[in-house]
Design goal:
5 helices; alpha/beta; two-stranded parallel ribbon; 6 strands; 151 residues
């Protein structure tokens, strides 16, 4: 990865890492051995997904994440040292990823009754925790136009 980020910087560009979690949109046949499909609630995504082994397959019902499972992505975001070592200028937390505001925030995909479900405040908790964890790990606000950080 360092060669890619170095090449981008050599041309005067900036490069960001994107955090992603597939959530309920996936299939066990497409996951690494031992990995499982998890989402905020045990609600299968509509439609099908292509697998090399069996062609098109319906989306299975994911395992509902525990509170600890949901908190983990918020607290395990890349550290300042990891990001700097890889040469990234910052990170992007895409709103449309499957495990973010879209899955945890929407009442149609979040049927939880714990600290991450129910009210709008509780459903927004995950997104706020991720944003805080990333800011704590890599520093305050960054933008593509900002100069490359040194820390």
């Amino acid at each position: 990865m360092e060669a890619v980020t170095a090449a981008v910087h050599a041309k005067g560009g900036h490069i960001f890492a994107q955090f992603m979690h597939t959530g309920r949109v996936g299939h066990p046949l497409n996951l690494p051995e031992g990995a499982e499909l998890v989402a905020p609630s045990a609600i299968a995504a509509p439609g099908e997904m292509y697998t090399d082994q069996k062609g098109m397959q319906p989306h299975p019902t994911p395992r509902a994440m525990t509170e600890a499972d949901i908190a983990r992505p918020a607290t395990s975001s890349c550290t300042r040292e990891e990001r700097h070592r890889a040469g990234f200028d910052g990170v992007e937390i895409p709103r449309r990823q499957r495990l973010s505001a879209r899955a945890v925030h929407q009442p149609g995909t979040n049927h939880r009754t714990d600290a991450y479900g129910g009210s709008i405040e509780k459903r927004a908790r995950f997104v706020l925790e991720v944003a805080r964890a990333v800011a704590d790990a890599i520093g305050g606000p960054r933008s593509a136009s900002a100069s490359r950080p040194t820390a």
